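To close the chapter, one final illustration. This time we ask the reader to focus less on the individual chains and more on the assembly as a whole: which components sit near each other, and how the overall shape emerges from the parts.
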Amino acid sequence: MFDDFFIRALVAGIGVAIVTGPLGCFVIWRRLSYFGDTLSHSALLGVTLAYSMEFNIAFSVFIISSLIALTLIQLQKRTNLPGDALLGLLAHSSLAVGLVVIGFLSFIRFDIMGLLFGDILAVTVNDLLIIWIGGALILLVLKLIWRPLFASTVNYELAEAEGLNPDRAKAIFTILMAAIIAISIKMVGLLLITGMLIIPAAMARNISSSPQKMVIYSIIGGLLSVILGLFSSLEFNTASGPSIIAASLFLFILSLLNIKQSIKLKN
Amino acid sequence: MRDNQNTLVKLNEAGFRVNNKWLVRGVSLKVEKGKIVTLIGPNGSGKSTTAKIALGIYKKIDGSVERSTDKIGYVPQKISIDWTLPLRVYDFMVLTENLNEKTIDEALSLTGVTHLKSKNLGDLSGGEFQRVLLARAISKKPELLVLDEPVQGVDFTGEIALYELIKKISDELNCGILLISHDLHTVMSATDHVVCLNGHVCCSGSPIDVAKNNEYKALFGEQASQILSRYEHKHDHVHTSEGEIKKN
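The assembled structure is written out below.
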């Protein structure tokens, strides 16, 4: 059943969307869009290291992104630079170093476009295993830290005062972000992973009245984006990442129409 | 201070500073089961800081804090909720602990806001929000309640009713309460022990004693204590902006 590349891509995309749905909600709630960008830019370095050392890509990206996240936390503690400057510093320097390393690896054939924007032809059965097992683990851990993470997202001091240990939840969530980037890089490409995290969640915010609903709509939005995007990618021979993100943008615009309608109804 | 098993939280010479500026220091107090301890003092006197030391939100402190319970309900003074989160009153009630519908309804009806249960938190007025905050803190039947100006923005009659409710909760649940208020007279009847802060402990004791105290008068003006007593003596020190105490 997984012989056909398109079926593999579809199964991979569905796995990714189920995990990016809830994580994306937290990215929006905690204002982590640029943090996601930084981690995904640093993923290039992880990919190049994987190629040069013949290592598993997802694993290597996970390690490098986690290291970058830890570096960021240390820099925040030790310097007086604002958070966005540190994010920019890490994002662009790790991207640059990654590209420089690619330059040295001229003996390896590189599909740089596939790397940046995703390539459905490249999804193997092995990748499917990584996405579904990794994804299940991410969701399981997220479920375990849900209460402290959510409570501290609403109000840090309340969570801390009532004994929920928000710092630990935050650290674990950071690792989960690195993990989702690692497992979705082949599908969406490293430049567009943050889009996959935030656009379906943003769409969901427009039409939901409670956090649970937002998570569910975000997953549904992600699934529709993947299915729509992949079919159009096949039809028009476009890269998979941009097609999926364009589809999610389309859904986001539809959700804006919904807002306009409900405002009209109120008046 | 004598210790016993009724002590829920105890501060020993506790202090907290940011960038070498003391927000509060040298605070010793304890909250026992069934007792209400009130912190009063002017703006910037370290009331909220003291509460956060007691709660363990501030960790790098001078002195020490001993807590013997982790069943805590907290009403912070300021709460900024980000409206990128769709959050109903119901979702807020179960934020830190799972509660059944009955418990939630009971708590909301105690503070008179049952009708707001499915409303979006962002649509509440200041007073309504304050009542929801208080309902959330008491709904989990805590052993220790820390209430930082819990009735701000509530209308005058509501204010008195809520203080009566706080007193009732303390009796019924036998929980200890650390209450922060800027007005001693409204909380007078509901308080067992008052600590008057101004960067350090200015004076403490029963509400009547504190109202009589000269330092309290110096802080709040003669008017504040007039209804109680004409008792007076000389104020023997001044407070500098660094939080030092200088004898006259």
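Chain A touches chain B through 24 residues (CB under 8 Å). The two ends of chain A are 53 Å apart (CA to CA). With these observations in hand, you are ready for the problems at the end of the chapter.
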